[in-house]
Amino acid sequence: MAGLAGAALPGCECGSVPIAGRLAQRGASPAAAFAFMLAAPAINPVVLAATAVAFPGRPDIVIARFVASLMAAVLVGWIWARFGDDDLLRTATGGEDASTPWSMFTTVAAHDFLHAGGWLVLGGMTAATLQVAVPRTVLDVLAGNEVVAILALATLAVVLAICSEADAFVAVGLSQFSTTARLAFLVVGPAVDVKLVALQAGVFGRRFTARFAPLAFVVALGSAVVVGLAAGAITGNITWTEGIVVR
C-alpha cells in the first residue's frame, strides 16, 4: 500500500526522502516508509506522463517503467522488513511546520517546477554531449553487449542524478541502446543516485545509507532487467508505430 501511495503524490526524489523520514519519525513502519520513498518519484502521474511524451507511441515503456519501479520499491520494503536493522536509522527531528496548506502547496509546486525544468535542460545537454563528445564507436561497443549496456546505463543514472521528471528525455536520446538498458536507466535513477545518497545520509544517517543504497541499486537493476525481458517476450514481433499496434 505504501508503494502504491507513491502514485498519488507527485514529487521528485528530493522531496520523497524527507517525507519518508517524517513518516518513520511519526511511527510508520520504516520498511513501508522506504517503499513509499522509492515509489513516489518513479510511478507518479507526472513522471509517467513525461515518459509517454518522451517516448511517443511506446506505451510499453511507460507500463514497463511503472511495473519495474513499483516492483523495486515493494521488494526493497519487504527485504528491509525482513532483514533490515531499524537501529541504524537516525531520523531528523524538528518542530511542526507552521506554514498554511496553501503556502506549502505553492512552495512545493514552485520548487518542483524549477527543479524539474533545470534538470530537464541539464539532462538534454548531457544526452547531446554524450552523442557528440563520446565517439560513436564507443557507444556502439557498449550498446552491442547487452550486459555491459545495462550496467553502463544503470551506472550513468547513478552518476548523472537527473530528476525523475526529466530522465526519460535523456533515455530517449540514447537510441543505440536496447529498451531493457534504457529501462534500467529509468528505474535505477529515481531509486539511487549521488544526490539521493547524500540526502539519505543527512536524514537517516551514514550507516543506514551504506546498506540501503547498494540494496536499492541491486533490486532496482534486477527489477528493470526482469520486466524488460518479460516485456520483450510478451510483445514478441509487435512493434509500436505512432500509437498503433502493427503485427
From TrEMBL:
Keywords: Cell membrane, Membrane, Transmembrane, Transmembrane helix. It is a multi-pass membrane protein. The chain crosses the membrane at residues 30-55, 62-81, 113-134, 141-162, 212-234. It comes from the Bacteria. It holds the Pfam family ArsP_1. InterPro entries: DUF318, UPF0718. GO terms for cellular component: plasma membrane. It is found in: Cell membrane. Belongs to the UPF0718 family. This is Permease. It comes from Euzebya pacifica.
